[in-house]
Automatic annotation (TrEMBL):
Gene3D superfamilies: lambda repressor-like DNA-binding domains. This is DUF2083 domain-containing protein. Residues 10-64 form the HTH cro/C1-type domain. One of its GO terms (cellular component) is cytosol. The keyword Cell membrane does not apply. It holds the Pfam family ScfRs. It comes from Corynebacterium mendelii. Keywords: DNA-binding, Transcription, Transcription regulation. Belongs to the short-chain fatty acyl-CoA assimilation regulator (ScfR) family. The keyword Acetylation does not apply. GO terms for molecular function: DNA binding; DNA-binding transcription factor activity. PROSITE patterns: HTH_CROC1.
């Protein structure tokens, strides 16, 4: 096998676990000087060391491979092919290799490019060139969740303990009442009453009362009550997570707070160990898990993308939610898959095809330009509509995992993951996709030299 220089990734792992070099060396059975040399890329990570790292820390071996940084590398590629960077196309791959070996530097590069893009957009929308850049709250929150691989151990573990204290093991029925009782101990009462159009629940701070709109299912009521309970009982843990991340956009921190409350609600209603056992037992069959938990398809699918507790990992999924126009309103991932930040996503991706087959689960074996292969599971979902006059919402929800994990799911049945020709070639979006033979390409990739012969026609437009 090729030599693996993964000093920065080993250092990242050590710091995440709160260890110094001597403590890491002791855990791995190595000398402190040897660990120091690995972290400074003087020595490669050997196979025995790699196996020891995966054994001690309960992580996937790809943590120290370039594949583990595939999303970051995809973002770096997007930066380097931006026309305003004006980098010689012949040097892109060289720069990407540097970024792969130094992810901290790559993160800085991506962050600077994000700020540059925000400046551009501010100028366009304001009409003058000295407009202040505006970071986008949802992008900052998405990056916050990605930095944690969509898993927050302290919150998840605490929620599992809360579920245990209430005698809840993840089966439907009675949980909303138990949550109501627990909230009452904090002086918070719960009632069901008509709400203004568009509201599903609200917390009235003046009366210390949670008001749930009529018509919510048992699972929907429990989810909202569990989110409010988390904001009361886990405020310290939640704020610790938020304090660990720098949010610059106005509204980003409250949005992240709401996201963590929803995360905690799912972790309470679907406690980790019980839910993972059920998921493994049924091959990650989302419809079976819906029936077991009494929750809807989207909520269950999203919970499947959070099962990354060290030593007890589920299948690492990427979760996405898109609308008919291609807007991606949710994108959270336990994998390294990169989807473009700018421009549309790939029209060959079956997440969009599900709109023509509403309610039907569709599968797709795909291959990205970097050679990574994935299994995608997609289905449409409809969101709550409280009255005929209120417009409903329909989305497509997708779950994707690397093909090497597909055998753990029922969705792999009948698909041949050993045949490269069986995979649909998709990409992160036309702007950064390197494929030159795609008939669906909407415009050429950034940095690609366009050669046009008016006397020749081809299926692929560029």
């Amino acid at each position: 096998m090729d030599k693996i220089y993964a000093g920065s990734r080993l250092k990242q792992l050590r710091q995440e676990r709160g260890l110094n070099q001597a403590e890491l060396a002791q855990a791995l059975g190595l000398s402190a000087s040897y660990v120091n040399q690995i972290e400074h890329d003087v020595r490669p990570v050997t196979v025995p060391v790699l196996l020891k790292v995966t054994e001690v820390f309960g992580i996937d071996p790809t943590f120290v491979s370039r594949d583990s940084n595939s999303r970051l590398i995809g973002e770096v590629r997007e930066v380097l092919t931006d026309p305003e960077i004006r980098l010689d196309p012949g040097r892109v791959e060289e720069m990407i290799r540097v970024a792969a070996d130094h992810p901290a530097l790559a993160h800085v590069l991506v962050d600077l490019h994000t700020r540059l893009r925000n400046v551009r957009e501010a100028e366009v929308f304001s009409g003058h060139s000295n407009a202040a850049p505006q970071a986008l709250p949802h992008e900052e929150v998405r990056d916050f969740f990605y930095a944690h691989r969509n898993y927050f151990d302290s919150i998840d573990t605490a929620c599992e303990q809360i579920a245990c204290e209430m005698g809840h093991s993840g089966m439907p029925g009675g949980l909303a009442d138990r949550l109501t009782d627990r909230l009452f101990h904090h002086g918070i009462t719960t009632t069901v009453a008509p709400q203004p159009t568009g509201f599903l629940h609200r917390f009235d701070r003046a009366t210390n009362q949670i008001i749930l709109t009529a018509g919510l299912s048992e699972g929907q009521r429990a989810f909202r009550l569990a989110a409010e309970l988390a904001l009361v009982e886990l405020s310290g843990l939640v704020n610790d997570q938020l304090d660990s991340h720098h949010f610059s956009a106005p509204g980003a921190r409250p949005l992240a707070l709401k996201g963590l409350a929803s995360y905690a609600a799912a972790a309470t209603i679907m406690p980790y160990r019980d839910f993972l056992a059920r998921a493994d037992g049924c091959g990650y069959d989302i419809e079976q898990l819906e029936a077991m938990t009494g929750l809807n398809y989207e909520t269950v699918a999203h919970r499947l993308s959070t099962l990354q507790r060290p030593g007890r990992e589920g299948v690492p999924f990427t979760f996405v939610r898109v609308d008919r126009a291609g807007n991606m309103s949710k994108r959270q991932s336990a994998t390294g898959l990169h989807l473009g930040r700018a421009g549309g996503t790939c029209p060959l991706w079956n997440v969009y095809k599900t709109f023509t087959n509403p309610g039907e689960i569709m599968r797709q074996f795909t291959r990205m330009p970097d050679g990574g292969s994935y299994l995608w599971i997609s289905r449409t979902v409809r969101h709550h509509r409280s009255s005929f006059a209120e417009p409903g919402k329909i989305f497509a929800v997708g779950l994707g995992c690397e093909a090497r994990h597909a055998h753990r799911t029922v969705y792999a049945t009948g698909l041949d993951f050993t045949d490269p020709a069986a995979a649909t070639p998709i990409g992160p979006g036309c702007r950064t996709c390197s494929r030159t033979d795609c008939s669906q390409r909407a415009f050429p990739a950034v940095g690609q030299t366009i050669t046009v012969d008016p006397h020749t026609s081809r299926v692929a437009p560029y």
